[in-house]
């Protein structure tokens, strides 16, 4: 496997994964217009090249919520990460720890929180939670996250209902005869079938199973989520979480400056400017276009992270220049995980770091704190 660019991993992931899993991570909502705009708009952001600026002692590290990161990158929460590689959450967490960044575990992960802390000593772990009707599950999983030593909660608010993801029905994640199609696809992808299908068991929603005290497998995944998303939720309904959780809270799924202000008034410590990777409402603006307006309103008052469309270290620099304090990456590391496990994620992060250093050198900045809109050709 010859990997020279972060995007190379997507090609290998497509070969390795059964189509139902590849399309689940690769696809978006409806006609996937927003999915495409996320990458296109970000790649069209022009950086301002500067020369003879003495950037010898360049430093890409940063600090966020009291944690020192080797670079301003966080592995985003991705549901079913453990289906992309054997016990995938653990492999990604180990890669994050070795490279000095943070891994965010999804509440619908394959591996439960307890497995993470048992397999990785002092894990650099954040935890993500959805707004769900089952408040008992929310309270239970928050208690378990606290017991595991998690200090930062990522609260996803842009999923009161699943988006219309047509690829999932076409490929077998959902739709008619989905289970039979998945079995056939697994047979046609023997490497994945052995490594994950056979050796990566149990294939269930680890955090949900622990709460329900019974296995919840892939067949239950869409049904359980669909039955539990809460469309009636409002800011006042989240106050118990702010009171219950004593650590930092990040609100994920902000795309509007007024919602960002509401998050600040709610008492959040940070936000993730995100359109859920183009997987929810197709036709909304890209994160690239939303970020500057939001940053103008709340920069300095709370931490700003951004995701959606980030495929390289160069894209990370672009997001910082647009106003983010750090970037979250999802698809990019899942492709690497599927292609080459923990080693793939570590190599991807090395490439990101190298690309960041090149971009910073040629824009004439020595530290992450110096990256701002002065680095852009506006």
Annotate the secondary structure layout.
Elements: H1 8-16, H2 19-26, H3 33-43, E1 62-64, E2 67-69, E3 73-75, H4 88-99, E4 102-105, H5 113-119, E5 125-130, H6 135-147, E6 152-156, H7 166-171, H8 178-187, H9 190-198, H10 206-212, H11 218-228, H12 239-244, E7 248-254, H13 257-266, E8 270-273, H14 287-298, E9 303-306, H15 313-322, E10 326-329, H16 331-363
Parallel strand pairs: 3-4, 3-10, 4-5, 5-6, 6-7, 7-8, 8-9, 9-10
Antiparallel strand pairs: 1-2
Helix pairs in contact: 1-16, 4-16, 13-14, 15-16
Helix content: 40-55%
Structural class from helices and strands?
alpha/beta
State the end-to-end distance. 39 Å
Low-confidence stretches: none
Q: What does the average pLDDT come to?
A: 95
Question: Within the largest sheet, what's the order of strands?
Answer: 3-4-5-6-7-8-9-10
Integer-rounded radius of gyration? 20 Å
Any idea what the shape is? globular
Tally of helical runs: 16
Largest sheet: 8 strands, parallel, barrel
- The run of helices and strands is HHHEEEHEHEHEHHHHHHEHEHEHEH
Q: Based on DSSP secondary structure assignment, what is the total number of beta strands?
A: 10
- Residues in β-strands, percent: 5-15%
Question: Which key phrases capture this entry?
Answer:
378 residues; two-stranded antiparallel sheet; 46% helix; eight-stranded parallel beta barrel; alpha/beta
Please outline what is shown here.
By secondary structure, the protein is α/β, with parallel strands linked by helices. The protein is 46% helix and 11% strand.
